[in-house]
Design goal:
Layout: E1 17-24, E2 28-35, E3 43-44, E4 49-50
C-alpha cells in the first residue's frame, strides 16, 4: 500500500526459468516457477498475494497491470524471451 514495493519471494534461475502468474476472483495472485525447458512441474513461488488487502486505492483504480522487470545489484540483468497473457474461456 501507499506505493511501497514488497518482495514476496526470491529465487535464482541460472539456467533460465518459466514464470507463471495465476489470478482468482480478480484479486488473489499466485506465482510459480519451473525450469526453462518446461520439463519440471510448476513449483509455487511465495504465497497468495491479495491485491485488495490493505488497499488504499478506490475500486475503479484496482485494475491489474502486468509487467516484467528485474532488480538487483549494480550490473545485474535479466532477459525475457517472451511474454504471453491468456484469459481462460468463460464457463456458461
Amino acid at each position: 500500500a501507499n506505493g511501497a514495493s514488497e518482495v514476496v519471494a526470491e529465487t535464482s534461475a541460472p539456467g533460465g526459468a518459466q514464470l507463471r502468474m495465476s489470478v482468482a476472483n480478480g484479486h488473489l495472485f499466485r506465482f510459480a516457477i519451473r525450469a526453462a525447458d518446461g520439463a519440471a512441474e510448476w513449483a509455487p513461488l511465495g504465497g497468495i498475494v491479495d491485491s485488495e488487502a490493505g488497499s488504499d486505492l478506490p475500486p475503479w483504480d484496482r485494475g491489474v497491470r502486468a509487467a516484467l522487470f528485474a532488480i538487483g545489484p549494480s550490473g545485474a540483468s535479466a532477459r525475457f524471451a517472451s511474454f504471453r497473457m491468456e484469459q481462460p474461456a468463460r464457463q456458461p
